[in-house]
Every structure is written in structure tokens, then in C-alpha cells.
Amino acid sequence: MSVRPARRLTASVFAVGVLVTASGCLAGQPGKAARRAAPAASAAGQLSPSAGPALTAAQARSALITEADLGVPWGPTQGAATWRDTLLKAATAAPQCQQLLDALYADELLGQSAGAYAVTALDDGDDQAQLRYQVAGDRRADVDRALAWLRTLPQTCAQFSAATTGAGPQTVQVYEAQLPQVGDARQGLRVTLTGQTVDDEGEAVTLTVDVAVVRVGDDAIVLTEGSLGTPPSDAVAQALELGSRRLAQVREQGRAQA
């Protein structure tokens, strides 16, 4: 099978890490535990903007990626994926793991943004995948605390059970995933939900959601990509590499015009 041109430049860098045995979970509300965790040390970044005026709504919109950036078969979304209500609207007895499920369902991995915010959604009809890409202006320390919280989840929520109203009980697994070296700090996760439903070939149906949060200066990029199966991981790397450069350039242009 030939490789689609839009995906040829990026390798599958969204590699899944080793599953670690789950331990206890901490209590918290969606988005709040991320802000309580200790700030993580920032990694060296690329093209990251220095401190300056807060990101504006127009700048956030300008920093979004589009279907043209990812190429065929990505296009504008046709609406929320059916698996969002069926599978992500789930309950578990472990509080911090519930926080993760709530954050995924609400699409608020950073909690509510304190600054400018813009979001776009794209669909891949070939792989039945949906990608949501957000740019948020926030305080640096808040984003770093959210990243620190995300880093704990492959241990605290490595594997747990969740109940859904639309698809019955699910086994949820959380893995750490590698991201391209973009921005100043970053964290990736892969979350899978596997239940009793089987496909036409008798295989268990698994929802896979890839999660990426990248801090660029004081701002953040949040990306989720989900699919009933294995989502196209090259889209994650391509979106983050292009999007982090675009966000840094938008900020530089804003400072130059100030």
C-alpha cells in the first residue's frame, strides 16, 4: 500500500511506552488536580517565545492547524464522534482516573483556560478517526502543573475498570507516549478502552485516544486523536511539529507589531 503524501514526512513517533501496574488514585475534580501538582521542569524547546503580552483570541485562531496542513484524507469535522458519548462518558471508582475520563469527555485536559482560546476539529474518513486541536493562552506555571499531573497517570491509572451506559463495562489502560521534541515542555498519553463488543471479525472493539499537551512559552497546544482501532499516529507528530512552529511565529509577529 502506498504512503499518503501528507504523511510521508513524519515517522510514527507517538510510540506507546511500557504499561506499569496501577496504584491508588488521588481525589480531585476535572482539571483541578493538574493545577495542584508540583510544576514540572521545562525541557529545552524550539522557537519558543519569550515573555510578552498575553495571547489574543485572533492569535490563537491564527495558530490553529487546518485540514490543508495534514492533507488527504483529513477534512472538516462532520460532528462529534459517536464514541464520545458511548465510551468516554464513563464512571469509575478511582477518583483521579475519573478525573481523566471527565477531562477527555469534556475536552478540558488543562481545565478551563485563563486566557485566549481557539479549537478546531478534523475527521479522517479512511481511519474513522477524529482529531481535536486547541491553542490556549494560560499561565506557564498552570500548564506545567497540568503536564506534571498527566505524567503521573501511566502509574496511578495504568489499568482500571469503567462503566458506560452505551457500551457496558470497559477495561481502561493508560500508557505514556513519546512526542516529537517541540515546544518547551510536553507530555503524551495513549488511553484505550476495551469492552465486550466485538467487530465483524470477532475481535474486541477498542477505542484508542492519543493525547498530547505541549507548552510553547506561556501558551499551550492540546491535541486529542481518537479512533475505534489504532488512530493514524503520524498525524499527531505532523500537527505538533507544524503547530508549535506556527504558534511561536504568531507570537513573534505579535511582539514585532506591538
What would your notes on this structure say?
By secondary structure, the chain is of the alpha+beta class. The chain contains seven helices and nine strands. It has a nine-stranded antiparallel sheet with strand order 1-3-4-9-8-7-6-5-2, sandwiched between helices. The longest helix has 25 residues. The N terminus is likely disordered.
In percent, how helical is the residue content? 25-40%
Task: Give a quick account of the main beta sheet: strands, pairing sense, barrel closure.
Answer: 9 strands, antiparallel
* Gap from first CA to last CA: 50 Å
Radius of gyration: 18 Å
Strand order of the largest sheet: 1-3-4-9-8-7-6-5-2
Q: Could you state the order of secondary-structure elements as H and E? A: HHHEHEHEEHEEEEEH
Model regions low in confidence, pLDDT < 50 over at least 5 residues: 1-50
Mean pLDDT: 81
The helix-and-strand class reads: alpha+beta
Strand content: 25-35%
Number of strands: 9
The number of distinct helices, counting runs of at least 4 residues, comes to: 7
